[in-house]
Amino acid sequence: MVHGNFIHLKEVLSQEELRQIREIVAKSNFVDGKATASGAALKIKNNQQLANSQENTQIAQYLLQALLKHTLLQRAAMPKMAIPPLISRYTEGMKYGMHVDSPLNGQEYTIRTDISVTLFLNEPHEYEGGELEIMTDAGLKSYKLSAGEAICYPTTQLHRVNKVISGKRLVAVTWIQCAVRDAHQREMIFKASEVIKELEEKDMANTEAHLNLQQLYSNLIRMWAEI
Ligand SMILES: O=C(O)CCC(=O)C(=O)O
Ligand SMILES: [Fe+2]
Question: In this predicted structure, what is the pLDDT of residue 42?
């Protein structure tokens, strides 16, 4: 589902994959999330992150592949590079105040952060509070999705995680550099691809309308993409 520049991904992970990931995570150590924060974020970031280990590096790679192979993400985001997700946990009282993510991020390699992603690893009924709230021109948008679903939003936006009142919130967060950096341009390209898909579903592939739209779609990407 795509709303403007927000991409809601469903079924990024199966129930079995979620179960296995949660089982490993439950046995793993967490460290203070401030370890990967800098500057002003140090004061407002209050969560925990999965400690580095070989097993956790494998989980992060697995999650990254699961996200990148999602066809809606491929169509709407046109990912060029992404960094291995951080698994974060918010226990009672933890939150992440209003902030802006770093424009450049990554440890082994650096990407420009065009899209921020939160992949939910546990169910909304397992914790009270803990909504991800993102500032938009139309006000705050609030997300608390089912396990296995992800919200992708432009990293240009201020956002926060509300205090967890009870229970535990478990998510994986990552950032994507897109072939097209501007969210509005990506949205226009995605809309064109939606109409192309609709024409194909209505058995109108290779009609004049379809070819013209395909040409427009390809040329918009050619005009805006940086590779
Ligand atoms: O936990 C989330 O949903 C988002 C966390 C966040 O904003 C961040 O790590 O920069
Ligand atoms: Fe953030």
Answer: 84
Contacts of 11 (CB under 8 A, 6+ apart): 148, 149
* pLDDT level of residue 220 (50, 70, 90 thresholds): very high
If one residue of 95, 116, 164 were mutated to test the ligand 1 pocket, choosing by the most ligand atoms within 8 A of its CB, it would be 116
Structure confidence at residue 1 as a pLDDT band (50, 70, 90): confident
Task: Evaluate if residue 2 carries a pLDDT over 90.
Answer: no
Name the closest-CA residue to atom 7, ligand 1.
160
Contact 118, 157 (CB under 8 A): no
Q: Which two tokens stand for residue 219?
A: 């040329």
Domain 2-178 class, CATH top level? mainly beta
Amino acid code (one letter) for 97:
G
Answer whether 118's CB lies under 8 Å from 171's CB: yes
Of 111, 32, 106, the C-alpha closest to 79 is 111
38 CA from centroid of ligand 2 (Å): 12
Q: Is 88 in the pocket of ligand 1 (CB under 6 A)?
A: yes
Residue 56 to residue 14: CA distance in whole angstroms: 19
159 lines ligand 1 (CB under 6 A): yes
**Tens digit of pLDDT for each residue in 38-82?**
888 888 999 999 998 888 899 999 999 999 999 999 999 999 999
Q: Is residue 1 helix, strand or coil?
A: coil
